[in-house]
């Protein structure tokens, strides 16, 4: 058993862990990063990167087909094998040496193994060969282990060997048919991706609409598009049982509207949520339950740990389970630990570099279906629930000149939620082709708390789709 | 001779005049709008709308061809006839009845004729039949006549009947070949458009680079793309003479590097700048020179006119010759005239609704070449010239994950100019496919004067191209 000492030990080498480590090293600390799987994590190999790689060709082709003149040049269909080859390149064939090299270049010591906290500031890393290294963290331990899929307790499900996001993004060929269970982001993106690559897709959704945390029109527009693309979309279903012919197809039995139905497909993707990856972390040795990692201040420091040496960052703390928010928290945490090592208080006051304030106010998300969904801040419903006096305005994106030029048949919708008392934007949602790049303007407005009166001076360039920001202000009036 | 009285008479019915009129009516005023040509103006028929319609198919097709999987579905080339048909639809076959109806619906009285100011607050409108209507403006006259192309005094040019932006956006077929003289926005966009539709294109540029008002890399990247697309691009040329075989091709003789050369093509586009459209406005009757319309306060009111009844709005005042900035000024002017009619001072204090403050600080522009160029605020050079202590940072857009997912061969560049004393962004430039929709985020930051420390909390969604805003902040450091 070797012993090693570092200022900071990071458990988990996804984007969050990488960024905690990088900022801490930049702040002068020595850092060990413990990772049992691939450096780069879920995002690089089984989520953002491969899913967007699978989705982009259909979006690009759809846009070329939507415009007279370029439409005539499109005579074939998507080459799924080429898409899968491109996906393989983007995940580097599941080889993380590039990212390991990046860590090395950044001055971070990579320890390959499963990290377990055995005592305050002590992390044991058990390598693939079973050998154990004990790491001592002089200052802090940051848990950045991310999240894992939740499989509901449905009879027959385990035996049917369903896909999770991992298998669904890593598949080596297009399944003839696929059942997707779920109505959230992962479900919608992957239903869309595999449909665009040629699979027959059934999607079973528990609730009355897709993308439930968003403005209602987001789920409605995506549902309409999925159906138009041929996805057999069923709402308000309850999955009852899964069965599989050994080595063969999966049958999912579900109830809907009091009736019992079933669908059968070559593959089954369960996209029914995720939970923090806390198994085997050794929290119990610290007298902490698994929920402890969700109990953090805005500096992502776990509350109630003597000495304040434990941080919980990214998906594992459940604040905003998105790669970019994990990285955002990571910058604050890395800087904070470094600053505290120099004796600075680095108190997590709102909007300082020591606090992940945006987690509460300005979490942006882009869903790469076609149409795309892009949102930031509060929905109208959430704002009212939070007790804000808000006024929301909507605008038909297809009525914006720039949208018509982009795609003559452009369909989409935009909404802006204004806090009437402070006269600032607290939320915005856009649905339509290509809107993913439009939302950052709203994020800057929300975070900057730019008053509406001033926002009128932020003139969108004509004729871009971004002119919708003017249309929303005009709809609000002045 | 009939006599008519209105609160406000607007001369010129392009987007600027339409918006002045609309806001004034919304403010309770009676408004006549005098237009000799098509309501909707240059933008709707011979600039933004048709040029972007000509450009979009190539952009859409280029993006589909750039991605493995969709590339294989593209086997043909752009159907130029379909593009021209779409252009015809977008300009409504040069029929402005839709826009005239819109004016009517907005409560604006349209007077078809050429407007001439014959005395303070008196406008004579001479219709196509030569009949004259005299309009009295009780409160104000707003000149919104836009701009016209400048043709340099080159021997043989007039006889060669060159294209201006009008003929170049309205052409009914693709010329076999085209010489473009100029290196600005109109020249680059239309060289690109006609090249993408199949014309052989020569482009003769006077200066050492394209798009001279922008960051140098903008012109360099666009020049590289034009050349790659087969445009014969010549820099530092001086056009000496133009000649034309009667009814036939045009030959342009020019010098470059001390040598005399010539190119010959079916058509010749002169894109050598524009000037305010002040001819025939009758300014001399008011004792004003043509430059008077450029001498305005931030409320676009012409200085030194007794009674302060004359406004000059949009391209004609030369503040920021762009459709969206004309509309922006128009909103301020329409509201101001209405407010003053109610006895309010409506002083044009910075960033109030009565002032076009952004004209000085935050003019965005998108150039729809491929790569697109999008910029707002000051270039580094302009900021230093203005005496600001700035620091500029750049980032390779092709290194952003979202860009690689958008287009595996993505090439582009981003730059952010920071005022070191105030710690705010004063300018930004992006060059790359699709960046036109990214710039509004920078516009909000510039206009909102959002401090850098706060901007770190505006997290771009992963994996969008917009993540470049994070990369620029990281490059700047904190």
TrEMBL record, chains A, B:
Signal peptide: none annotated. This is Oxidoreductase. Residues 363-469 form the Pyridine nucleotide-disulphide oxidoreductase dimerisation domain. Residues 6-329 form the FAD/NAD(P)-binding domain. Disulfide bonds join 43-48. NAD(+) binds at residues 182-189, 273. FAD binds at residues 52, 115, 145-147, 315. The keyword NAD applies. Its cofactor is FAD. Belongs to the class-I pyridine nucleotide-disulfide oxidoreductase family. GO terms for biological process: 2-oxoglutarate metabolic process. Gene3D superfamilies: 3.30.390.30, FAD/NAD(P)-binding domain. InterPro entries: Class-I_Pyr_Nuc-Dis_Oxidored, FAD/NAD-bd_sf, FAD/NAD-binding_dom, FAD/NAD-linked_Rdtase_dimer_sf, Pyr_nuc-diS_OxRdtase, Pyr_nucl-diS_OxRdtase_dimer. Keywords: FAD, Flavoprotein, NAD, Nucleotide-binding. Binds 1 FAD per subunit. SUPFAM superfamilies: FAD/NAD(P)-binding domain, FAD/NAD-linked reductases, dimerisation (C-terminal) domain. One of its GO terms (molecular function) is flavin adenine dinucleotide binding.
């Amino acid at each position: 058993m070797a012993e090693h000492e570092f200022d900071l030990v990071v458990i988990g080498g996804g984007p969050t862990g990488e960024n905690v480590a990088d900022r801490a090293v930049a702040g002068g600390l020595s850092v060990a990063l413990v990772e049992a799987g691939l450096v780069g994590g879920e995002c690089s190999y089984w989520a953002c990167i491969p899913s967007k790689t699978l989705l982009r060709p259909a979006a690009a082709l759809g846009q070329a087909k939507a415009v007279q003149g370029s439409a005539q040049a499109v005579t074939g269909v998507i080459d799924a094998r080429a898409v899968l080859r491109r996906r393989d390149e983007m995940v580097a064939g599941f080889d993380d040496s590039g990212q390991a090299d990046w860590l090395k270049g950044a001055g971070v010591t990579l320890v390959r193994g499963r990290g377990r906290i055995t005592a305050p500031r002590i992390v044991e890393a058990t390598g693939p060969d079973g050998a154990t290294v004990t790491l001592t963290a002089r200052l802090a331990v940051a848990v950045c282990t991310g999240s894992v899929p939740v499989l509901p307790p449905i009879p027959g499900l385990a035996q049917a060997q369903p896909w999770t996001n991992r298998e669904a993004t890593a598949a080596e060929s297009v399944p003839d048919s696929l059942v997707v269970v779920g109505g959230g982001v992962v479900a919608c993106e992957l239903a869309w991706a595999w449909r665009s690559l040629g699979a027959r897709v059934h999607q079973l959704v528990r609730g009355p609409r897709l993308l439930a945390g968003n403005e209602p029109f987001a789920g409605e527009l995506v549902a309409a598009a999925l159906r138009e693309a041929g996805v057999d979309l069923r709402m308000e279903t309850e999955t009852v049982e899964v069965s599989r012919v050994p080595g063969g197809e999966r049958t999912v039995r579900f109830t809907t509207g009091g009736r019992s139905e079933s669908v059968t497909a070559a593959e089954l993707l369960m996209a029914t949520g995720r939970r923090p990856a806390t198994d085997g972390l050794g929290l119990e040795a610290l007298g902490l339950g698994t929920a402890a990692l969700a109990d953090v201040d805005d500096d992502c420091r776990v509350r109630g740990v003597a000495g304040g040496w434990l941080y919980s960052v990214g998906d594992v703390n459940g604040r905003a389970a998105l790669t970019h928010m994990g990285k955002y928290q990571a910058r604050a945490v890395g800087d904070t630990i470094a600053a505290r090592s120099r004796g600075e208080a680095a108190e997590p006051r709102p909007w300082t570099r020591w606090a992940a304030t945006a987690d509460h106010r300005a979490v942006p998300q882009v869903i790469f279906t076609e149409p795309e969904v892009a949102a930031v801040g509060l929905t109208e419903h959430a704002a009212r629930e939070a007790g804000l006096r808000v006024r929301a305005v909507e605008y038909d994106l297809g009525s914006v000149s720039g949208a018509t030029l982009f795609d003559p048949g452009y369909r989409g919708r935009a909404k802006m939620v204004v806090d009437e008392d402070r006269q600032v934007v607290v939320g915005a949602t856009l649905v339509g082709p290509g809107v993913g790049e439009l939302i950052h303007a709203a994020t800057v407005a929300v975070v900057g708390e730019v008053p509406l009166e001033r926002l009128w001076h932020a003139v969108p360039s004509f004729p871009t789709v971004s002119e919708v920001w003017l249309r929303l202000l005009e709809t609000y009036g002045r």
